[in-house]
Prior knowledge:
By secondary structure, the protein is of the alpha+beta class.
Amino acid sequence: MNAESSSAAYPFRRENTFKGRRIYNERPQMETIKTTINVDADLWRDFSIQVIKCEGYRKKNDVIEELIREYVEQRRGEKQNE
């Protein structure tokens, strides 16, 4: 499969290589920001442990992003119902 036919069939599919293996990212690339937050150390440790147990290593960013999305959507719904 060449890059042109791949992108035509899957417009958001990006093919990358890592150590000679093909990696496919299904999500479109989006602009991201890096931020810093202050969180209680015990809370952060407990959160980290739960993420590792449930989602696996190096998934905290994904979980935090999903939590932010859920929060924003919930607040949008509340404002629309007023």
